[in-house]
Amino acid sequence: MKNLLVMKFGGTSMGSAERMKVAARITAEEQKKRPVVVVVSAMSKITDLLLDTMRQAEAGNRAAVDASLAALRQRHEETCRELLPAEKQAAVEARIGELIGEFERIVNGMAMLGERPPRSVDEAVVTGEWLSATLMAEYIAGCGTPAEAVNAREVVVTDAMFGNASPLMDPTTVKARARLLPLLERGTLPVVTGFNGATADGRPTTLGRGGSDFSASILAAALDAAELWIWTDVDGIMSADPRLVPDAQVLPQITYAEAAELAYNGAKVLHPRTLAPLVEKKIPVWSKNSFAPEKPGTRIAPSVSDGPSGTRAVASMGKVALVSLEPGGPELNGVQVMARALDAVARANVEVLLLSSSSYRQNFCFLVREEELERTLAALEAALALEFAHHYLDPVKVDRDVGLLAAVGEGMQGKAGLAGRIFTAISRVQVNVIAIAQGSSELTIAVVVRRDGLEKAVRAVHAECGLGNRPPVPVFPFSPKKGQ
Ligand code: ADP
Ligand code: ASP
Ligand code: MG
Questions:
Q1: CA gap 241, 462 in Å, rounded
Q2: How far is the centre of ligand 2, averaged over its atoms, from the C-alpha of 217 (Å)?
Q3: Ligand 3 centroid, distance to 290 Cα (angstroms)
Q4: pTM for this prediction
């Protein structure tokens, strides 16, 4: 469809009746100009609440489950009453009751089994998105634009990696077109749930936390959209997380590669896999603030015209762990151990965030997300059981007291001295560097530091690279006198 715009509203942009009204207004304005597909997240904090309810059910904590269900009901019923006219409320509240009832049925099953199968978690957790899509579609329809809530399990086809599924683009394209184009052709606005999909044989899946950005880009690619707009709670992609760095600046434009590196290294503003489906069709993305829709936001495109050279932004990630492996003696070939270890963690669907090795002792370490650590260790133990048993390999060492910092920018390539400046800035604020990696593309310099120094290090690197509005701290605390 020509000139199609896909717009995604995140959790805070769906966070209350008031926020939904703003999102609906933005949508209606755009819809006057061109066809629009909307993708929505669950209301803010609802996904956490749903996941926690399931954990409590597994642990047999009935009182906590009941309290969470009550909170879930209350938040959505309240929003419904504030959002919709009196005559519509009863029917929509009944629908909310049905959806929460479905969720409760799955949760009760978990409580009975004392287990939380990933497949059931995926089926249940998308209740959040289904509730917000239902409310949003009802409100938009009530304002005069025909709208229909669509569950993405009808349109996004994925593999069966529950909790972190990947889209299968060919069948998704067929299904998305078949389901959404007829709606668009008759002027009905589809309000699609973000975050979820289903396998080809219909088993519900999710795309990983924060996955609604990814849902939106999958649909933008499948429908050949002209643009994708991602509405969030900050003015765009910034030179650092504004929660950590008060003088972080909005970047007017940024390349796909830079945005992907930032997201991959912890910039929560974008799901790391968002840009992949768009590369082939070169669909531009705008990151915009639904709290300040008049601001231009950040344009993310395959390449940008006038980007400043050097570092563009700094990203960081706190909840990570460094896993180290070291041969106990010369019996083993270190490269083979590395290959088998990485193969094992990849099979366990663990993402290796950074890898660093030393050639002499043949030891190596890699960084994983804290929530993937248990899976990582189990995979290593299974794959290298004999080597551990015979002490050919020392016991795995794990350091949880670490954080990842990454300086990103296409213009960093070939900039002599930049890495040195980054390390100097980190050491100047007395933070220890534990491991370093720089990909051959020179797009990112990634550094593992002590966890309690992470935020200090981010601010120091941000200032050193001249990204904020404060001058970098001088290397020498005094200016040498003339002639010295
Ligand atoms: P949404 O619910 O809209 O998907 P998220 O909470 O997932 O929003 O992402 C937005 C948040 O990302 C911001 O509030 C901000 O704190 C954080 N963030 C981290 N790094 C950056 C960055 N480089 N630029 C902008 N925001 C960032
Ligand atoms: N609601 C999901 C989450 O919180 C997906 C998203 O918001 O993008 O992870
Ligand atoms: Mg998000």
A1: 10
A2: 14
A3: 13
A4: 0.93
